[in-house]
Amino acid sequence: MTDVTEATEAAAEPGRTPLVELDDVSKYYGNIRALEGVSLEVHAGEISCVLGDNGAGKSTLIKIIAGLHQHDAGSLRIDGEETRLGSPREALDLGIATVYQDLAVVPLMPVWRNFFLGSEPTKGSGPFKRMDVDLMRETTRAELLRMGIDLRDVDQPIGTLSGGERQCVAIARAVYFGAKVLVLDEPTAALGVKQSGVVLKYVAAARDAGLGVVLITHNPHHAYLVGNRFVLLKRGAMSGSYARDEVTLDELTRQMAGGSELDDLRHELESRTP
Amino acid sequence: MTATAPAPAPEGQSDERLIKTSPLKKLLGRPELGSVVGAVAVFIFFSIIADSFLQATSLATVLYAASTLGIMAVPVALLMIGGEFDLSAGVLVTTSALVSSMFSYQMTANVWVGVGVSLLVTLAIGVFNGVMLTRTDPPSFIITLGTFLMLTGMNLGFTKLISGTVSTKSISDMEGFDSAEAVFASTISVGGVDYKITIVWWLALIALATWILLRTRVGNWIFAVGGGEDAARAVGVPVAATKIGLYMGVAFGAWISGQHLLLSYDTVQSGEGVGNELIYIVAAVIGGCLITGGYGSAVGAAVGALIFGMVSKGIVFAEWNSDWFKFFLGVMLLLATLLNHWVRKRAEATK
Asked: Where does the ABC transporter domain lie (chain A) (predicted)?
């Protein structure tokens, strides 16, 4: 729990520049310390998991990487260059795509319209400039198929898909639009066991396609299934950072469940039982 | 989609899991359905009740009534798909006519100059609505209610101040009146029956609105800002610009409508237009627009306007008391809404 920085450095392979690197990053909202001294590396073809309980600072961390908020201290390096992201658009242009919990999809719109929303391809010019509907339909189908999602009808409203399927469409969309880094905010939070499995498969598929993935979750089991490195957040600070071979699932689970606090709680409860 | 058990390679291009969608089922999925069924029912009803209803001249009258409303109902429907209301739309028509008339009269300018100034003023009011909405927090219901009250007051106030009475002076002897009348308020004779030119404007607006909605990027954005504003913003849709554009669309409709009002009656009563904004919304809702945004069609709103035209004139042809008109409209609204609701539930009940 204390050898935080050593672990991070040990995990980094020499000579490889991380796609995104957070170094000792802090963020304050007024006098509230939302995030302090957090470091994180995202490499191509790897999944970095950020684990933490509610209020641990996961959302703040995402917002900094996604360009919604700016960090107050420390440094954020993208492709080795120190950057300060001013807007989500800027982050997108640098290849960082964020899939939020609400997925940024419009439930009543067909899948293909959602897939291209905000970046619709057009053909023709002048007053006859129009969306290339055939291309959009075909591409949506093909891209989803490439991610292993076989959609029956791209014309169905996206709201009729299950939560896991919607998550997959959002991921496929980010991949198609050239994301190099994929930030996933609790992709399995509201899903059942089977659906979670489906989503994790697509997360792994994105990793295998060479993307760097930041997986935010509070489920250590899901994280350990796919993660290459793990950062644990607790009350805005980093309480642990491990490469995969440095930690076991049990240890991860124990820390997530509260670690020593859990032991205290057990003692307290046991002392109350007559 | 199914995650398990990949389907065996389909023969040819078709996917065996896709149940052959019957044309009927496809039709059921359209937002216009409720309004079309309603329109057919109303048509048959008045065909039986009123003998003169099926005559070509009667139909021309019905289409005229439908078009004057439809010119506004179509952009109002687009705005509703974009998730917003415009309660100022009714009086904006009057404002547009008043500006045009009074500018031409007071400046002794060519009528076309007044028409042009009116376009700018009307669009500016649309921009005002849009900017107020996107820059501040209150819902469009409140903001356009404010615009509605302000315009109602200004229509009366300015007209009395400038003309001394509640109506404008006649501009029929002014330069450019005839050509402007030809564009906005003429009649076209087809097969011995006179059709008002507003029908042409109406059809053109339906075509334009449908094109924008279904085949352009802007159309995609309109659905998106109405169906999920935050999601739209997150993927880079210019939410504010889209909404301001929609309010300008309503203003454009109000301009056409206002010019027609002025050029067909020559003078304008400054108190007119109050209450029409609700009728536009009724037409859009009958046409399948969701009151919460994100769903609907321009054609549906146009059919809603057609129903309105058939009922308002059908009652006259049936020689009933026209006091019953609002009652019929209310019944239509409720039935169409229930039908639309039911159809959408059916269409979306999957998973």
From this structure: 20-260
Query: If 0-12 CB within 10 Å is exposed, 13-18 middle and 19+ buried, where does residue A16 land?
Result: exposed
Q: Does the beta-carbon distance from B351 to A118 stay under 8 Å?
A: no
Cα B342–B309–B339 angle (5° rounding)?
A: 5
Q: How far is A153 from chain B (nearest CA, A)?
A: 8
Chain B residues lying within 8 Å of A96, measured CB to CB: none
| DSSP reduced 3-state for B182 | helix
Identity of the residue in B17, B215, B290 whose CB atom sits nearest the CB atom of A133: B215
- The predicted model scores a pTM of 0.82
Radius of gyration of chain A (CA): 20
Q: Spell out which residues of chain A touch residue B221, defining contact as CB-CB under 8 Å.
A: 117-118
Cβ distance B351 to A160 less than 8 Å, yes or no, reads yes
Q: Are residues A80 and A14 in the same domain?
A: yes
Query: From B9, which residue of chain A is nearest by alpha-carbon distance?
Result: A150
> Any idea what the CATH number is for the domain that residue B166 is in?
1.10.3470
For residue A217 the two structure tokens come to 């979750």
What b/e sequence results for A31-60 when a residue is b if at least 16 CB atoms lie within 10 Å of its CB, and e otherwise? eebbbbbbbbbbbbebbbbbbbeeebbbbb
Taking the CA of residue A7 and the nearest CA in chain B, the distance in Å comes to 35
B56 to chain A, any CB pair closer than 8 A? The answer is: no
**Number of structural domains chain B divides into:** 1
Per-residue pLDDT of chain B (351 residues; tens, 9 = 90+): 434 433 443 334 445 555 555 666 666 667 787 788 888 988 999 999 888 888 889 999 999 999 999 999 999 999 999 999 999 999 999 999 999 999 999 998 899 999 999 999 999 999 999 999 999 988 999 999 999 999 999 999 999 999 888 888 888 888 899 999 999 999 999 888 899 999 999 999 999 999 999 999 999 999 999 998 888 887 888 999 999 999 999 999 999 999 999 999 988 999 889 989 999 999 999 888 888 888 899 999 999 999 999 998 998 888 888 888 888 888 888 887 887 777 667 656 543
How many angstroms separate the CA of residue A134 from the nearest CA in chain B?
A: 11
Which of chain B's residues have a Cβ under 8 Å away from the Cβ of A196? Answer: none
Alpha carbon of B87: minimum distance to chain A alpha carbons (Å)? 25
Domain boundary among A162, A179, A196: A179
Residue A164's domain comprises 97-179
- Domain range for B70 is 32-343
The complex's ipTM works out to 0.80
The pLDDT tens digits for A10-24 are 444 455 788 889 888
Alpha helices in chain A (DSSP H): 4-11, 58-66, 88-93, 111-116, 133-146, 163-176, 193-208, 220-226, 249-256, 260-272
Q: How far is Cα A179 from Cα A173, in angstroms, rounded to an integer? A: 9
